[in-house]
Design brief:
Blueprint lengths: L1 E7 L4 E6 L4 E4 L3 H11 L4 H12 L7 E4 L4 E5 L9 E4 L5 E4 L5 E4 L4 E4 L3 H16 L4
Antiparallel strand pairs: 1-2, 1-6, 2-3, 4-5, 5-6, 7-8, 8-9
């Protein structure tokens, strides 16, 4: 299972971190990889983003659920096409801590990422994911 897809080399490549602690570099942008990952699971990323925006009453950086039943919700650290964007699987986050000035360390079970964004933004994203994961479909 994927924990995070982090943009590297100015968004031209991606570092994929897995729950088991392994990682690999892909020759694709993070946004392209997340879209492909959703397509593999027969879910439309953009459609899911629009639904999340409506449910959460937000306009940007919306988390998108891949599976509410399995509690798989990814959220972007920045705008989805921003070269620094990292897509994070909220269910795999162990802790979120402030790290240096305007950086955040997101720890998973066997690895971590350092993001060039304030801890408050990541915590807000985690809260949004929790709302989606706890939402009952009527």
């Amino acid at each position: 299972m994927i924990s995070a897809i982090q943009s590297i080399e100015e968004g031209q490549k991606s570092l994929v971190l897995y729950r088991d602690g392994s990682m690999c570099v892909q020759e694709q942008a993070a946004f392209d990889l997340i879209q492909a990952y959703y397509k593999e699971h027969l879910v439309c990323y953009e459609g899911g983003r629009r639904i999340s925006c409506e449910v959460l009453k937000i306009r940007q950086k919306a988390p998108v659920s891949l599976s509410i039943d399995e509690q798989i919700v990814f959220f972007p650290s920045h705008g989805s096409t921003h070269p620094d964007c990292t897509f994070i699987n909220a269910a795999n986050v162990k802790s979120v801590k402030s790290y240096r000035k305007k950086e955040t360390k997101v720890e998973f079970f066997r690895n971590y990422v350092i993001l060039p964004i304030g801890v408050r933004s990541i915590k807000t994203q985690m809260q949004r994911c929790e709302i989606l994961m706890n939402r009952k479909i009527r």
